[in-house]
Amino acid sequence: MDSIKRHPNKILALVLVLNFRFLHCQDIDVLHKPPNLKLYNVSSQQRLIVKWNVNNTLYASDSDIVFHIQVSRANETNIICNHNYSTHISNTKQTFQWAWDSELPLECESHSVRIRRALVGQEGWSAWSAWQTHHGDVGRENNYRSKPIIYPHEKIVHEGSSVSFCCIPVKNQYVRKIQFKSTSYNVANGSPGTAVITVKNVSMSASDGTNFICFCNGSYNGTVLFVSRPPDQPSNISCETQDLKTLKCTWYPGALYNFDNKNGDGKMSPKYTLHEWISQKTSVCSARDSCSWTIEKNRAIYNFTLTAENQLGKRSVNTLVNVTENVRPFTPERLSVINITARSATLRWFLKVSYKDHPVLCQIGLQKSTGDEELINKTIHGTPTAECISKLGKGLLHPYTTYTVKVRCAVISSLPKWSKWCKSITIRTLEDVPTAPLDIWREVNESYGDRMVTLHWKPLTAFHANGYIQRYNVTWQSLGELSKPQFMNVFSPENSTHISIDSKPSVIRVTALNSAGSSPESEIRIPALSKDGFDQIQEEMTHNEDGGIFISWTSNPNLYHGYVVEWCNYPREDYCDLQWKKFNSSIHQHIIKSNAFRPGVRYHFQIYGSSLDGEHLLERKAGYIEELAPSNYPRPKIGMVEPDIMHLEWKDYAINDLQEGFIRGYNIHIKPPEGICELKKSEADIVSGDSQQCTFFIQDPLKKTFTIKQLKPNTKYEVAVAAVTKGGESSFAFGEVLTPSDTNGAILAMVVPVVIFLITALMLLVVGCWKRKTLKNFFYPDIPSPNKSNILSFDTSKDNSSNMIMLPTSGPTQNIYIVNVQEPKMHKEIQDEKYKGLDIRDYDPYSNDKIWSRCINDTQSELLTDMPHTNPLQQHLHRALNNSHAINYMEFFNRNYCPTSDDVDETVSNVGYKPQTEISQLGLQLKAHPLPTIDVQTTDMNTETDLGWRNASSENLYSLDIGEMSPLSTDSSAFMLKD
């Protein structure tokens, strides 16, 4: 308090200052609000324009300021846009403007805007301005409406954009459905009563647009949406002048869209303008692809910008034009010929404008009747009359030649622009003397000592004829004689004639004549008639190569200075069109080509050698441009058919010029009935499935017979013959052939074995006679005689009866003499004691009993025969001995010991030594009739042994089984004396 009392004035001043500052701040805040905020609607662009101004006296000049702008829709709390707008404040700029584009038409909803601001570099914003609202059609009175309103109305949008539509219904109605094209959309209500939809990525519409319809509960209404594109950017723009007064600029405008047309007056057709930057002039173009500009005097450089613009956008392109470099003259007019000779012509034409200040280059197009074109450049200096004259000198034109002439011109520059070609004219130069000799040839035919020469020549080409050939002058005479030559005229278009000459050598000369003169002379010489036999030269085959026929010959430059090849283009026709070609001496081969050559046609070539006296035939050739398979096939005739052989012939098949190729041979096809090829030297071909046919190939085309061997008798075969060329095999047809039965074979089958048997028997007989002793010793060796034994020696003077081995009988005991004694070991014993018979199979040569043999004399034989009551063994032996082979049986026991009876000796001698067969028979007889039990008793009589009957229990019994004995004599149980 003391301080306040002490300084009352200072305190009052402070209070006043603070109060002033407070009041001043309030005034500044109020004044800083953007005043005069106004809104404007551009309905076609759905654009809201905001304008306001400020009092820049409150700010320092040249200050940067920021305005914060907010946009709300329907109500102030629904902020849909926040934007900062920066600008600069100056003494001259007090009003500001900002545009905002809405995706929804502004008529569909109310939109409000407010602004605040702040200086750049200072903190804090000013207060917001009051909201300014654009109500659209929603806030308007709609009692007078009878239909709903749709926005946007007939709008044009870019292809691919999104479009929002709204439908505002009549009062007391509501939106029921919205349809775009053929699609119905769900309705989303905006403000009360208003329906809004958004269509995304709209496509190009038709020229009359796309319908949008809004259906309410009591009415409906619609609008049209147009969807298109901005114009294409112009390309290839160029500007040029023809009259040096007006520039004409042309360009490519691009594609035509749905609302464009070629005249450029369509609803959405772009508008083209040409702006020149130096003069700042603009010209509106009347066409979509060209525009004109007036050239200013003494000015050559122009800077243009071409702009194409429609409601969806614009495109532009720049170009810089130099008039002197972009002059395109007018098309030349009234082209004509002033003067013409055989090798030159003078032309004249006119230009529409005189380019006297600009040198002009004109180009003459000279085209021959053959189609070849030559361009000739001529420089023309401008004249006041614009007349141009040019001469085509020697070397450019050829005599008696037709040309088509045309002209175009261009101003000489770095990039000349040529005018269009003028209308062409036709000219023909005059005739001149022919410049080349004729190419002549001849045919010589002998007739009764004279010769007829057919003279041919090739017409001169237009290049060498130099005019129309009216006639040919032909002269001839004998060589080495001073006789006056004969002559004749042949008029065009003939190119051959006939001349009669004798056997002497002759010379013929030919010239061609036109209206200007005669051609150089052509000469041909005919040798004297000779009997060298050139017609006997054999023709050789040749081949095709590189689209022609290859011809070669033996060259001999020492004899001939050239060669001529002669042929006919049409050998199968009456007019053969004789052709020839000449070569120098260094050439020995050539490929003959002709457009007349056809596949499958045989062409004949004669090669002549040219010498001083004329041409001599050297060789003959024949060939095809292409060989084909023969069109006809051989038809074989069946010759002799045998059971295994078939003869074929086709002698009537021609191999001459009518064939489509050289016959290289023949294929013989045979189908066997079984479908299996078994013929030797043939190839098996599969014809169908597993079926085969045999094929023989004959390499000699001159051979027209064939013999098929190895066939089967009484079998059906299918046979065909096909001709073969390099082009392939001809067609063929099978014929059936049946082979006959083989009777000779059956006879041979019976005779041959008989003959072989007889030959074999004869051979065996011869060998047997030759080697009879060897065979006898091998098959029937001599039986050793006991008398020759070293062990047993018999006195031949003794009575034979004392040496006889007697068979036991029921009578008195017989004496048995031992002739040989052995003591072998026991080999086999009787296994079956029940069997009591005596069998030879039980005989054991190794038993302890003495081996014995015996003979029965006639008396004893009779005795045995007379015994009716003898035992069975005696009867059995009696029957065996009385058998026709009984003596053989006795021989088995002792071959060398024989009875004393002469009859018995003779019988044994006749039968011979047969141990195998006879023992077998005896064994069978014994087996069929078993022998009873025999008792053998032994008594000593002097030094000999008496064999008598024994009881079966006292001695071992031996059964003899002949079947089990060895058939060999060496294995026999009988003891054989050693020789």
From TrEMBL:
This is Oncostatin-M-specific receptor subunit beta. It comes from the Eukaryota. Belongs to the type I cytokine receptor family. Type 2 subfamily. The chain crosses the membrane at residues 746-770. It comes from Pelobates cultripes. PANTHER family: INTERLEUKIN-27 RECEPTOR SUBUNIT ALPHA. Keywords: Disulfide bond, Glycoprotein, Membrane, Receptor, Repeat, Signal, Transmembrane, Transmembrane helix. Residues 331-432, 436-533, 629-743 form the Fibronectin type-III domain. Residues 1-25 form the signal peptide. InterPro entries: FN3_dom (IPR003961), FN3_sf (IPR036116), Hematopoietin_rcpt_Gp130_CS (IPR003529), Ig-like_fold (IPR013783), LIF-R-like_Ig-like (IPR048497), LIFR_D2 (IPR040817), Type1_Cytokine_Rcpt_Type2 (IPR052672). GO terms for molecular function: cytokine receptor activity. One of its GO terms (cellular component) is plasma membrane. The lineage of its organism: Eukaryota, Metazoa, Chordata, Craniata, Vertebrata. SUPFAM superfamilies: Fibronectin type III. It is a single-pass type I membrane protein. Gene3D superfamilies: Immunoglobulins. It is found in: Membrane.
